[in-house]
């Protein structure tokens, strides 16, 4: 069965420090991986998709098939990055239709 | 219009009540989803509709009954719920074809349900 693991419930850093939110997955085949973010009092929204290899709001994420990881990184955290971050996988368990979410990591960026 | 709307925002119901949650999108998406999110937990998939047909039911109890009357609307009918069903119910939509480089689920703000 496909599974997504985010080992950290909470990550607290100071403004300007580097950030790495960890995500590991279990999936047989080629996964599609995403990072979703939920800011306070806002709806869940897409941040990154692995296939696009883009940088959004300074965040990047690289798919490492050997380590089955898709960690989210940002070199210099900003206070406005404080939010709940979910790693998600779209795979054949749900007919490549729906998302399986990790448990989420709350990022707190302190001034 | 790139929003998914959900009504009501909050709902309190007794265990013998019947109520419905409503979700609407006008992005032309032909896939719509219901997720359940308990406090401090990730969203858990309940149902997927594709082209107005139920394609995935994640073993959800029959006291939850989904309905997709047309391509823009998705309902979730509730009957004889239990207190443990109290949660945030999220609706989402996406393109049904779901090509990897453009796939995105758009989420609504959710309906916070309390069962007393």
Task: Present the secondary structure layout.
The complex is a heterodimer of chains A (about 110) and B (about 120).
Chain A lengths: L2 E3 L4 E5 L4 E3 L2 E3 L5 E7 L6 E5 L10 E2 L10 E3 L8 E8 L8 E3 L3 E6 L1
Parallel strand pairs in A: 2-11
Antiparallel strand pairs in A: 1-4, 3-8, 5-6, 5-9, 7-8, 9-10, 9-11
Chain B lengths: L3 E4 L2 E4 L4 E8 L5 E7 L6 E7 L2 E5 L6 E7 L2 E7 L7 E8 L11 E2 L3 E5 L1
Parallel strand pairs in B: 2-11
Antiparallel strand pairs in B: 1-3, 3-8, 4-5, 4-9, 5-6, 7-8, 9-10, 9-11
SSE succession of chain A: EEEEEEEEEEE
User: What ranges of chain B have pLDDT less than 50 throughout 5 or more consecutive residues?
Assistant: none
Average the pLDDT over all residues of chain B and give the rounded result: 92
Question: Helix/strand/pairing class of chain A, anyone?
Answer: mainly beta
- Total E-strand runs of chain B: 11
Low-confidence stretches of chain A: none
TL;DR?
The complex is a heterodimer of chains A (111) and B (116). By secondary structure, chain A is mostly beta strands. Chain A has no helices and eleven strands.
State the main characteristics.
heterodimer, A: 111 residues, mainly beta, 6-stranded mixed β-sheet, 3-stranded antiparallel β-sheet, globular, B: 116 residues, 7-stranded mixed β-sheet, 4-stranded antiparallel β-sheet, 11 strands, 55% strand
Please tell me about this protein's structure.
The complex is a heterodimer of chains A (111) and B (116). By secondary structure, chain A is mostly beta strands. Chain A has no helices and eleven strands. Chain A has strands at residues 3-5, 10-14, 19-21, 24-26, 32-38, 45-49, 60-61, 72-74, 83-90, 99-101, 105-110. In chain A, strands 2, 5, 6, 9, 10 and 11 form a six-stranded mixed β-sheet that branches. In chain A, strands 3-8-7 form a three-stranded antiparallel β-sheet, with no helix packed on it. Chain B is an all-beta fold and 116 residues long. Chain B has strands at 4-7, 10-13, 18-25, 31-37, 44-50, 53-57, 64-70, 73-79, 87-94, 106-107, 111-115. Chain B is globular, with a radius of gyration of 14 Å. The N and C termini of chain B lie far apart (36 Å). The relative contact order of chain B is 0.33. The A-B interface holds A 32, 43-46, 49, 51-52, 86, 90, 94-104 and B 4, 31, 33, 41-45, 48, 50, 55-56, 90, 98, 100-101, 103-110.
